[in-house]
Amino acid sequence: MKARGADLLARSLAAAGVKHVFTLSGNHVMPVFDAALDAKLPLVHVRHEAAAVHMADAWGRLTGEPGVALVTGGPGHANAVSALYTALEADSPMVLLSGHAPLDELGHGAFQEMRQADIASPLCKASWTARSAATLGEDVARAFGIARSGRPGPVHVSFPSDVLEAQADDAPARVTLPRNCIQGKDAEIIVKSLAGARAPVILCGPAMMNAGGPERMRRLEEACGAPVIGMESPRGVKDPSLGRLAAVLAKTDVVFLLGKKKDFTVGFGRAFPKAEVLELSAGLDIQPSCDVVSDAASRLGAGHRAWRDEVHSEIAYRSPEWKAVRSSPEGPLHPVELCREVQDLLSGDAIFVSDGGEFGQWAQAWLSARRRIINGPAGSIGAALPFAAAAKLASPGSTVVATLGDGTFGFHMAEIETAARCKLGYVAVVGNDACWNAEHQIQIRTYGAARAHGLDLLPVRYGAVAAAMGAHAEDVQRPGELRAALQRAKATGTVACVNVAIERLAAPAY
Fold first, then answer.
1. Backbone angles phi, psi at 341, to 5 degrees
2. What is the pLDDT tens value at each position of the chain, 510 positions in all?
3. Torsion-angle region of residue 203: left (phi > 0), alpha (psi -120 to 50) or beta?
4. 475: which of 94, 95, 301, 366 lies 20 to 30 Å off by Cα?
5. Would you identify the CATH topology of the domain 184-316?
6. Which CATH class is domain 320-501?
7. 3-state secondary structure of 22
């Protein structure tokens, strides 16, 4: 039986268990939009291609299953590509599917002709252009397998429009990649090195912070006794949410890097100058390998309780002076006071999304939830609203709270309309200091306050902006207005935005 390539693609996605495709329409992918109807493949239609990638990224992190973004070719593809770096650095399994100029017109000035696979390649684990309708199922299966395997990450495939319109045999395709875990004997060597150390530490990278990872980290720490610390911030050892981690690493004598790169976030290893460093081999599956190490540790026994308690105390440290902060009754608010009120929204199974420069660091330092998504080692900003929308789709029964700066809000503010249209009820809390404050603080530190310039923003009423796009929204100027505004936002059950005037302060330092 023959079928159109677009139908084979849509059916392959449905067969792979895809629950939502995050997409923005365009000429090259309209056959897939058509095919999605018969395949019963739900489309979440966004307002910018990068937002579709950010949503697929968040889906991958929260569920462990590859999120799928679908965009058109040429400029649509180019818009989407910028968001791939955030997913790559966060070890997020996702697949970007792009439309593409027809194969039989390439080299002749085809509409929106672009070397799409080459453009995406540096930002993906793999990137290629489909060549035949007959192999579209294999393309999808291969993309999903690569996205999940080893260190998870994004994969890109372009689909030429003539391939999508061509006829081919309707046959299922399965391409599976074997799980590649650490061997038991190698795991035992690692566990014995940790056991024989005076002050061992296990540092986990972003792959361990994604779906299922935190529970595995807890089990590993219980089994081996060494403190297990997740690192996913571009601020590395200066991450405010990790307290005095730098002091801990300066003391350690053995570091096991579990999916954590020895990169700039740890000074390329200078953060632990006295330590023997153990690492997983490249290509090993991170989370399953963690289970193998945990099993080995359970057989060999655990220790280091006093050291582990010391490390946890250092990571939990927050400057006492910040805990006593109170804002002026007339405002603006200190970021800590804002965060104290937001924490009340993050009970139970809530999901916390954080994005932005200085305010993002305040939020990550002071807010906690069972599940968290941040911008990750890429250090990019702008993804909070797409992240929150995908989080609500991934966990409809959970409260989703996104904190973001006013600069960040401007990147994808139109996704408020997406959330309103798709009935995705999250709460966005904007810390508004009317500034690109991260860079403003760099200017002050590096060049002096007199040379800090060019980074001011208007104190926009982003609540009013969000209301115009269908959200419940409020603009808060004074501390006394905040709690009730947040509670009203949560109670609406619809997308809500609370824009809060905050002081222009540097991120916390301990």
1. -75, -35
2. 789 999 999 999 999 999 999 999 999 999 999 999 999 999 999 999 999 999 999 999 999 999 999 999 999 999 999 999 999 999 999 999 999 999 888 888 888 889 999 999 999 999 999 999 999 999 999 999 999 999 999 999 999 999 999 999 887 666 566 678 999 999 999 999 999 999 999 999 999 999 999 999 999 999 999 999 999 999 999 999 999 999 999 999 999 999 999 999 999 999 999 999 999 988 899 999 999 999 999 988 778 889 999 999 999 999 888 888 889 999 899 999 999 999 999 999 999 999 989 999 999 999 999 999 999 999 999 999 999 999 999 999 999 999 999 999 999 999 999 999 999 999 999 999 999 999 999 999 999 999 999 999 999 999 999 999 999 999 999 999 999 999 999 999 999 999 999 999 999 887
3. beta
4. 366
5. Rossmann fold (3.40.50)
6. alpha beta
7. strand
The CATH superfamily label for domain 2-169 reads Thiamin diphosphate (ThDP)-binding fold, Pyr/PP domains (3.40.50.970)
pTM of the model: 0.96
Same fold, 184-316 and 320-501: yes
Whether the CB-CB separation of 23 and 70 falls below 8 Å is answered with yes
| Rama region for 398: left / alpha / beta (φ>0; ψ in -120 to 50; rest) | beta
Strand pairing class (2-4; 167-169): antiparallel
Nearest residue to 118 via CA among 160, 77, 76 = 77
User: Tokens 């610390």 — which residue?
Assistant: 229
